[in-house]
Amino acid sequence: MQFNPETYRMPDIPMQPFIDTAEIWDYLNNTPSSPEKVRRIIDKSLAKNRLNLKETATLINANDEESIRLIKEGAKALKTKIYGNRIVLFAPLYVGNKCANDCIYCGFRVSNREQVRKTLSRDELIKEIEALEESGQKRLILVFGEHAEYNPGFIAETVKTAYSVKKGRGEIRRVNINAAPLDIEGFRMVKEAGIGTYQVFQETYHREAYKNYHLWGKKADYDYRLTSLDRAQEAGLDDVGIGALIGLYDWRFEVMGLVRHTNHLEACYNVGPHTISFPRIKDASMLRIGKHYFASDEEFTRLVAILRLAVPYTGMILTAREPATLRNELIQYGVSQIDGGTKIELGSYVSQQKNLDLNRSQFHINDDRSLNEVIEELLQQGMLPSFCTACYRLGRTGEHFMEFSVPGFIKRFCTPNAILTLAEYLEDYAPETTAQKGWKVIEKNMDELNEKMQNEVRDKIARIKQGERDLYR
Ligand code: SAM
Ligand code: SF4
């Protein structure tokens, strides 16, 4: 057959694993730290540069009081200087807990016979989404176990259903996914359904440790999981989220793994992860793991601050696994997205189940505040809760990067859109006390906009008060 350069496709060449355990340990073991070095590295972050592995290791190895103080203050300064006081809100929606894998930290593991298995029917799915909309949610993350039933076609249909449900003035404007890794064709299919971010957590970047926790099923293949988001990129899905489950291995190694994964994506696809997640292990039905690698609150706070400084442009997610007090504190160190009103038992947005049954859910959560309670506390802290989905819907992908790198982007787009989505929430869902606090916070944030922008936003708020919805720029 004649060679045709138009139709020739390179055969799939297996990717070289980009996590080198020895290299990461070498950095961790041989990078001394001092307050002076820490200061210089923080200046680099504040000048909006991602840190390399050596610099990240220097921050991780900083154990003296002065350096730790510098790191926390640096993260706070970066968060305030670059992102201001917005916090994006979302809700998780568990669609199905069937799973063919045996991850020993997870209640959904196939060997857990106590877990009551369920997949939401289309009707149940619609009712859950209606309940979420009626509380004011606009952004969802759909969560699935790894099971043949939850194939790309099923995930895509679920996404389309989520976008189609409209209850009262409610609607879902962005659907993200946390599900099993797909092949390139599968990623293409879910992208076409209009998803936002596709998250796949590596759980632990340590290859040997990984084997001990993933006993059975497709997820036991470390490399297939590690390269998932490369396949997503190949499929044109460039909005991806990475994460590590903190407590499986040394947290310092995981931070290095997350930064290495980030610079791999940057180097190969010119785009880093949209979000980084760092869930900590919580109790689960049939949880069988030792506590040796559990990170204390103090270590966890450092981890968050270090990640903020190491990858200044990315979104950072902190979920209701953590209690409200810790969440309120960690928001200052650079977290940009949190869930509110979270329920993880299948079907519980409708049933309003109060006590979590571990045999019907993946793990235990520690923040069971309603969405409105979360918003109230954010407002009390002077934060600006946001349901904005503008960039994604206008095709401005990589918005975190734009917020971060385009001068004035936040004041031109993010703050006005946060104000407008909060105004909708206050009009449609908030009790009077929350509304009063909310309008005050809106006024305060308005002061930071120039006069022209203020006029535009005031005009849009007036239209919202007259019943128009979904106004953004
Ligand atoms: N089945 C998909 C997968 O494994 O990628 C979806 C993941 S699961 C539904 C979402 C995430 O929850 C996992 O990636 C893991 O990091 C986290 N997780 C699992 N068990 C947990 C536990 N006991 N405590 C806290 N987080 C847990
Ligand atoms: Fe299944 Fe994911 Fe739980 Fe593993 S973490 S058992 S793949 S749901």
Domain module tally? 2
From the 3D structure, determine the CATH topology of the largest domain: TIM Barrel
Which ligands occur here?
A: S-adenosylmethionine, iron/sulfur cluster
Order of strands in the sheet with most strands? 1-2-3-4-5-6-7-8
Written as H for each helix and E for each strand, in order along the chain, the element string is HHHHEHEHEHEHHHEHEHEHEHHEHHHHH
Alpha-carbon Rg, integer: 22 Å
Oligomeric state of the chains in view: single chain
How does this structure look, described?
- This protein has 20 helices and nine strands.
- By secondary structure, the protein is α/β, with parallel strands linked by helices.
- It folds into two domains: 81-403, Alpha-Beta Barrel (TIM Barrel), CATH 3.20.20; 405-465, no CATH class.
- It has helices at 21-29, 35-46, 53-60, 65-83, 122-135, 152-164, 184-192, 207-213, 222-226, 228-234, 251-269, 297-310, 324-331, 348-351, 371-380, 390-393, 399-405, 409-428, 432-446, 451-465; strands at residues 86-96, 139-144, 174-178, 198-199, 240-243, 275-277, 315-318, 337-339, 384-386.
- Helix 3 packs antiparallel against helix 11, helix 6 packs parallel to helix 7 and helix 18 (409-428) runs parallel beside helix 20 (451-465).
- Strands 1-2-3-4-5-6-7-8 form an eight-stranded parallel beta barrel, surrounded by six helices.
- The chain is globular, with a radius of gyration of 22 Å.
- The structure holds S-adenosylmethionine (SAM) and iron/sulfur cluster.
